[in-house]
C-alpha cells in the first residue's frame, strides 16, 4: 500500500507558484516582472561594460562593484526562466533535476554576493581608515574573488546531493517562483534533520557571520569618521558608504526575513511569503545598479556618456 501511495504522489515534478487566485491576470502581472528583468540585465551589463572599458575605473571600489554586478546578472538569469514561464505561459512544472540545479545556482550566487558585500565593507573601511594603503588592495582582489567562489561552491554543492536522497511523496507545490532549499526539503517524506541542520549551518556561516562582520566594519568606520575634526570631511567619508549600505539592506533584509519564516514561523501567511520571495530574488539585482549609478558621480557620468554617444 505504501508503494502505491508513493507512486501516486511522486510525480517527479515540483509545481511553482505565481500569485494563487490571480491566474487570470498573470499575463498583466508579467509586464512589471519583464521590466524588472530588463532593468537588471541591462543595468548590470552596462556597469560591467563601463568598468571594463574605462581604465580610470580600474580601482578596488569599482572592481568589487563589477563582481557584484556579475553576481546579480547571473542571479537574474537563474530565476528568469521559471518566473516568466509562470506568468507568460502558465508553465508551473519543473523537474526534480532542474529544480535542484536552480536552487544550487541561486544559493551559490547569494553566498558569493554576501561575500562580495563583506569585501566591499572591508574596502570602504580601508579607504577611510588608511587611505595610503588603499591601492595595495588591488593586488589581492583576484585572490579575494577566488576565495568567495570557492567558499560558495564548498558550502552549497552538498545541498542538491542531500536533497536527491529523498523520496518525494507529497503534492510538491512550492510557494515561490523558483526552487529554494529551505522549502524543497520540506516536500520530502523522509527524515530531513540532517538537511535542516546543514542548511541552518550554511546560513549561519554565510549570511549571519557576513552580516555581523559588515556591521562591525561599519562600527569601525563610524568610529573613524567621528574622529575626523572637519565636518565637511566627515560627511564626505560617510557619503562613500551610502550606496554600499543600501545594497546591504536590500540584500540581507528579505533574505533573513524569508529564512526566518521558513525555519521558525511555519504558520506564516502565504500573503507574506510569496511577495517576500519575489523581493528576495528580484529586487537586489534591479536596485543595485540604480543605487550605485545614482551615488557615484564618476560612474554616472560614464553611463550618460555611453548613452549620449
Record the SSE blueprint:
Blueprint: H1 2-9, E1 13-15, H2 26-53, H3 60-89, E2 93-95, H4 96-129, H5 141-156, H6 158-164, H7 181-184, H8 193-226, H9 231-239, H10 242-264, H11 270-295, H12 297-308
Antiparallel strand pairs: 1-2
Helix pairs in contact: 2-3, 2-11, 2-12, 3-4, 3-11, 4-5, 4-6, 4-8, 4-10, 8-9, 10-11, 11-12
Sheet having the most strands: 2 strands, antiparallel
Helix content: over 70%
Mean pLDDT: 84
Number of strands: 2
Basic shape: globular
Q: What is the CATH homology-level superfamily?
A: Rhodopsin 7-helix transmembrane proteins
Structural class: mainly alpha
Proportion in β-strands: under 5%
The CATH class, by name, is Mainly Alpha
Task: Encode the helix/strand succession as letters.
Answer: HEHHEHHHHHHHHH
Q: How many domains, in number, for the residues?
A: 1
Radius of gyration: 21 Å
CATH second-level architecture = Up-down Bundle
Number of helices: 12
Strand sequence of the main sheet, in spatial order?
1-2
Which topology does CATH recognise?
Rhopdopsin 7-helix transmembrane proteins
* Low-pLDDT sequence parts: 1-10
Protein name: Olfactory receptor
Keywords: Cell membrane, G-protein coupled receptor, Membrane, Olfaction, Receptor, Sensory transduction, Transducer, Transmembrane, Transmembrane helix
Organism: Gopherus evgoodei (Goodes thornscrub tortoise)
Main location: membrane
Amino acid at each position: 500500500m505504501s508503494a502505491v501511495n508513493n507512486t501516486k504522489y511522486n510525480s517527479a515534478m515540483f509545481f511553482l507558484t505565481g500569485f494563487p487566485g490571480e491566474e487570470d491576470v498573470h499575463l498583466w502581472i508579467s509586464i512589471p516582472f519583464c521590466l524588472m528583468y530588463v532593468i537588471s540585465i541591462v543595468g548590470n551589463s552596462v556597469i560591467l561594460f563601463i568598468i571594463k572599458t574605462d581604465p580610470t575605473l580600474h580601482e578596488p571600489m569599482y572592481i568589487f562593484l563589477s563582481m557584484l554586478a556579475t553576481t546579480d546578472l547571473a542571479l537574474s538569469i537563474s530565476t528568469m526562466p521559471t518566473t516568466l514561464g509562470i506568468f507568460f505561459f502558465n508553465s508551473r512544472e519543473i523537474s526534480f533535476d532542474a529544480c535542484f540545479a536552480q536552487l544550487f545556482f541561486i544559493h551559490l550566487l547569494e553566498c558569493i554576493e554576501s561575500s562580495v558585500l563583506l569585501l566591499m565593507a572591508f574596502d570602504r573601511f580601508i579607504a577611510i581608515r588608511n587611505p595610503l594603503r588603499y591601492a595595495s588592495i588591488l593586488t589581492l582582489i583576484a585572490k579575494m574573488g577566488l576565495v568567495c567562489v570557492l567558499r560558495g561552491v564548498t558550502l552549497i554543492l552538498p545541498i542538491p546531493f542531500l536533497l536527491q536522497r529523498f523520496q518525494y511523496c507529497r503534492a510538491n507545490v512550492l510557494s515561490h517562483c523558483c526552487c529554494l532549499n529551505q522549502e524543497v526539503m520540506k516536500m520530502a517524506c523522509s527524515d530531513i534533520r540532517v538537511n535542516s541542520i546543514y542548511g541552518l549551518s550554511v546560513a549561519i556561516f554565510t549570511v549571519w557571520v557576513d552580516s555581523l562582520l559588515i556591521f562591525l566594519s561599519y562600527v569601525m568606520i563610524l568610529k573613524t569618521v567621528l574622529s575626523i575634526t572637519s565636518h565637511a570631511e566627515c560627511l564626505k567619508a560617510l557619503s562613500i558608504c551610502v550606496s554600499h549600505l543600501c545594497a546591504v539592506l536590500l540584500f540581507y533584509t528579505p533574505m533573513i526575513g524569508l529564512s526566518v519564516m521558513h525555519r521558525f514561523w511555519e504558520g506564516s501567511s502565504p500573503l507574506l511569503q510569496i511577495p517576500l520571495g519575489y523581493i528576495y530574488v528580484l529586487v537586489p539585482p534591479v536596485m543595485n545598479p540604480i543605487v550605485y549609478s545614482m551615488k557615484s558621480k564618476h560612474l554616472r557620468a560614464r553611463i550618460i556618456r555611453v548613452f549620449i554617444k
